[in-house]
Amino acid sequence: MATLRKENIEVYKSLDILARQVVEGFITGLHKSPFHGFSVEFAEHRLYNAGESTKNIDWKLYGRTDKLFVKRYEEETNLRCQLVIDNSKSMYFPADKQPSFEHPNKITFAAYATAVLIELLKKQRDAFGLTLLSDKIDTMTEIRSSAVHQKYMYQLLEPLLLPYDPEKASPQKTSIAEPLHLIAEKMRRRSLVVIFTDGWVDLQEQEKVFDALRHLKHCKHEVILFHIFDQDKEIDLNYGNRPYHFIDMETNAKLKIHPNEIAERYKAMAAKQAEAIKRHAIQYNIDYIPVDINRGFHQVLQPYLLKRNRMA
Questions:
Q1: Distance linking the first and last C-alpha atoms of the chain
Q2: What pTM was computed for the model?
Q3: Domains and their CATH numbers in the chain
Q4: How confident is the model over 219-248, as pLDDT tens digits?
Q5: C-alpha to C-alpha distance for 208 and 69, rounded to whole angstroms
Q6: ∠ CA 290-306-225 to the nearest 5 degrees?
Q7: What is the pLDDT of residues 5-25, one digit of tens each?
Q8: For 51, how many CA atoms within 13 A lie in the half-sphere containing its CB?
Q9: Cα-atom radius of gyration of the chain, to the nearest Å?
Q10: Torsion region of 100: left, alpha or beta (phi above 0 gives left; psi -120 to 50 gives alpha)
Q11: 163 and 99 in contact (C-beta within 8 Å)?
């Protein structure tokens, strides 16, 4: 079974993922919040930090252990973050090799980036949830902040690290717009929504995706969009000077063609589509991060988090 290697995640433990707009949280500190107090649903204990309020210390536990622990509650959080991964078949490109942290395909990059964000949110005592979607919502977890929930999230991410198996892949058309609308409707409180997608949809569907992003912003959510692609193969169409058999990973349609014969028109089309995604993101005040998987994981995520920390 593929695993999320801890050493690749812990590189980021000194960073934070900060909200830029007001969030409906309960603890003063990293994020601005309009509320104070906490819910009564107990989640877990944590060690008491010197200098903080003593009102939530579990004195009965202190009597048994001679150590100071603070009771944590499920809604004791600054920020609620919904991490959304496009799990459609095109996200498993390139499919001709074993994906790894050093040489990820698109879904592997999304899984590792999500694991890093979960680690940072847990450190900050923020709550997080995971949604996997394709043409529907495949999985949508509760938004929680406990260590048990973090472990469950990692269990959901690990299957995404497995190599693509065309024998198990049934035809599936990308249609993430409706699932994004559902996410907007289900999330009643202002949250941070982080989306990982390659954006490969037809022009009609693309307009529906833009409408769904508009819906998320209308509901007062802060949105970060990681637009993931393989610049060399998907955008620049760099293949050998010979005909190839191309197979659509979502419909299984097959096409034999010489890449050089269509390269100019294809590049123009791909550039137009990418530009439309970027333009709409800027228009809706969405944080847009283009991700070329060939650049390497750390060369993309680390500079973005450092930049976001400076601007928050």
A1: 38
A2: 0.80
A3: 6-13+76-311 (3.40.50.410), 42-73 (no CATH)
A4: 999 999 999 999 999 999 999 899 998 888
A5: 49
A6: 30
A7: 777 777 777 777 666 554 454
A8: 0
A9: 21
A10: beta
A11: yes
